[in-house]
Every structure is written in C-alpha cells, then in structure tokens.
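To whoever is on call:

I kicked off a structure prediction for a single chain this morning and the downstream step that reads the tokens threw a length-mismatch warning. I double-checked the sequence; it's 465 residues and nothing unusual in it as far as I can see. Pasting both halves so you can look.
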Amino acid sequence: MGLRSDPIGGGQFKQAIKQIMEAESQPIRQLEGRKAREESRLKLFQEFKSKFAGIDRALSEISTFKKLRELKADLGDGATTVSVTLDKERAQPGTYQLQIEELAQRTSVMSNGFEDADEPVLGLGFIVMNLGNGDTAEVFVDDANSSLRGVAGLINAQPDSPIRAAVIKDSTDPDYPWKLILSSKKDGSTNGIEFPEFYFLDGSKDFYIDSDREARNALVYVDGFPIELESNDITDFLPGVNLHLKQAKPGQPFAITISEDYQKISGKIKAVVDQVNQVLSFITKQNQIDASSDTRSTFAGDTSLQTIEYRLRNMMHEGFPVPNGSGGFRVLHLSALGVEFDKTGQLAFKEDKFTKLMEKDFEGLSAVVSGEFGFAFQMRELVKSYTQVGSGLLNLREQGLKHRIKEIDTQIDNKARQLEKKQVALVDQFAKLEGSLANLQRQQQQLAASGFGGAGGNPIAQLMG
C-alpha cells in the first residue's frame, strides 16, 4: 500500500510518520506473503487436477469393446491394386480372396484436334446440356468463349451438370494436338449419360466428336465368384469394409486379411498407464522434502492426495470379472494383462504379456478392460468422484483454496483502509503540533526583541530547546 503525501513537507515530522506507517504496514506484507503462497498452491493444485482430465480422455478410448477394438487390413500383393478403409465397429476379422479383372469406367467422348486451345475459332453457338436433375440447359457461346478452353469453362460452370470437361494435349497429331474431353462424373454403366449437343455458326474450324467410350462396371472376383461393381469406390464392399479399386490385374488374385490391430490396442492401454503415472509422480514429488523445503507452498503430507494415491493404487490391484460362458465368471487382475507396479512405485506396462493374452483370449481381455464392470468403467467412476463439478473432491479442494485467497484479499483491503485512516490522523496530529511549535517560536522571538528574559533565561526558549 502506498502512503499519502505528507502535507508537513520535510523534516523530522515526515520521517516520523513514515517510520510509524512502515511499522503498521507489516501485517499487510505478511498477508501478501500468505496470499502468494496460497496462489502458488492453487496453481500447483490446478496442474494436478488437469492430470485427471488426461486419465479420463485415455479411458474414453477403451470404455467400450467397440472403442477398445482396432482392426487392420493386410493387402499383401494387392497393395498396388486396391486400398481399404475399415469401420472397426462393423467390420469382422477374416480373409478374403480378390481379383480385379476390370476397373469401372465412365462414359466419355473426345473431340477432333485443334491447333490452339485458346483461339476463338468455333463461332457463335449453343450447347444443349442434359442436367443431373432431369432438366435441360442451353448455354450460349459468345465470341469470347468460342475456343476449346472457353467451351470447357462454360460446361464446368453448370452446377448440376453430370459431366466435366477438360482440354488436353494429344501429341499424336502435332499440328492439331488440342482436344476437348467430356467425361461422366461417376463410374459404372448405371451412370451412363447423354452428352451435350453442340451448335456453332460462322466458325473458322469445325467441331465434332471424334471418338467415344461407353461406361462399364468393374469386374471383381471375390473368393472365386465374379461380381460386377458399379464404381471403383465401393462403400461397404464387405460389412464395414470400404474398397477403392486402383488398378486392374487380370488373373492375379490376392488376399485381404482383416485382423485385430494389437499394436494400436496396446497403445491405448499404455496411454492410460502413462496418465495414471503422471498423477502418482506428482504425489510422490510433493512428498519428497528435506530441510530446505518450504512445505507451506506445496502439498507435502496432504491427506487428500494420500487418499487419492491409495485409491488409485488399490484400483490397479483390483480383480475384474470375466464371463465364462456358463452363467458364471472368473476374475482377472490387471497384472495378468501386463499392468503392474515396478520397484519405483510406478506402473509398468509389459506389452508382450498383453499381446499374448490378446492372441489367446481377446474376449476375456476385453471384458477386463471394457466390460460392464471392467477396469475402464470403474476407473472412470473413480475419476468422476474427484472431478465432478460441485461435489468432486478435487473441485471442492480447489474452491477451498480460492476461498482462502479471497479471504486474504478481504483482510488486506480492511487493513489498508485502517492504515489510510491512521495516516490521515497522524498527519493531522503532527500538523497541529507543528503549528503550536511555530506559535511558540514567534512568541519567543517577540520576547527576545523586547528584552524580556534576562539572566533567568527565556522560558519559551527553554521549552523550544
């Protein structure tokens, strides 16, 4: 708190007031020190609280069987022929034999050649287009657009057009290399279309369709059976399996193998282990103190943190039910999955042990991790009891820290107002005293001037010293 200006000016009175106010301000400085320590504790606690959000995010990835599960597709020799995306919630592990005999192709036509793609040589005219919604559009071609690129631009500008236009350079005839290609936007014979009709007048170069190609379906063999596909991109080619055909290789079958992706599943478990370790490490660090440690700004020996640590460690030692298929269940512990404590008190994840159990008993492992009463469910309930707004232990503790800081602020404000009043009173008192002394000095001077005082001395001078 800053002191008010001293109206007395300088001298002993100003210095006296400063010393008094400095002494009176000591309680405020002590409160400000307490506030700084509480703010440091609050910041530290909020860092601790945020780690539980990390645990919950990691647990959400294994909270159900569908979320825990990860699949991969091994294409083998077919990697250059097809690509696959999987919906892990619907796809099923298995091996399928494929052979790509023919790709689906689009209806397309190509014009005769032109010497220059940008030269307006076609003249005025119309393009009559059949749109995808069943309507017909007439597009006017003016002088500015009477070139191959101009016509292509007019066609592509139609939002409902089922075709796209492109100008390409064909070096087969170097004198007339530029041609217009019109193609359906969709593959397959069911997407065959009628191409536009072109009408031009007074052009210096004729325009006509030189060659065409009919649409056709893809031909694929699945486990030896011929299947026609309407497109090269097939959603749900198999349940949860989306297939993109890239290249035809007649007579060259290959296998697609869909299997559990153990590496990704292991990564999800490791993410949970890492997040829990962050919480345990924080608590351990808080309890590492020595003679120089300032425990007033940390949580050393804090019973709330000790309770959290105990419950987390106890959860990691729990056994979780696994249905045995006959109405009963058996119990598996996380240690059987490769999750166990090491000598340092941290969790260790033995991925090899986890993978072996997945290969041997994936259903049992899934029940332990993601079952109705499995680890993920119980752990999320525990985390929720700490983080729930209003009643969660961590939220209550955070609010307590904030309340203490607010109380200290109130005490500082109150003491500051008291000091303000005291300073005003002191200034007034010293001002009155200075006025009284000034009057005495004037009286002394008057007495001295009149010769009053004699050998006995002036009593006022004696008073003033």
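Update from on-call: the warning came from a stale cache, not from the record. Cleared it. Sanity check on the structure: Residues 108-213 form one domain.
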